[in-house]
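Quick question, first post here. What does this chain look like in 3D?
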Amino acid sequence: MTTALICLDGYRVAAVLDAARATLAADATWLLLHVSDTRPDEGFGHALDRLPGRGAARDRAREKVRHVVEWSEEEVRAEAAAWLKATGLAAELLVVRGRPEREIVAVAADRRADLVVLGGGRGLPGRYPGPGPFPLSPVARYVVDHAPTDVLLLRRYVAAADRRA
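> Answer (accepted):
Ran it through. Tokens below.
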């Protein structure tokens, strides 16, 4: 039986899961992974550290960034749970924090996944370049280069209206 690590980026969770369902074998074991990128929080923290002043305002700003990350994680959990319930499929959902490209490769190795499944484009309206010389996001490029197993790139999840001609 194949264990597929299906990576959710927080955009169009249901569309990625629909594309994975249409592509993967029916007997595959699903492991869903969402990685909250820590780079924005790290960059924000470095910027705050360089600003003059201290105290409560700085702490409130940091807390707001952390709150947004937690909210995003809960949104992904809720959307994935709703999709799983609607389709009747079972899957384990992991939510971790770190650099997405490195965490995906690490989880694939730790869980001994047979296949890593991720979107090949950025999944944002109007930003998907479509076929051509640069169709991969930096995260997808890193995973393709460093994954300890096969990688399946899903392009079907990006709506035709979002593709650039």
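Residues 69 and 141 are 24 Å apart (CA to CA).
The helical segments are 13-23, 39-50, 56-87, 100-110, 138-146.
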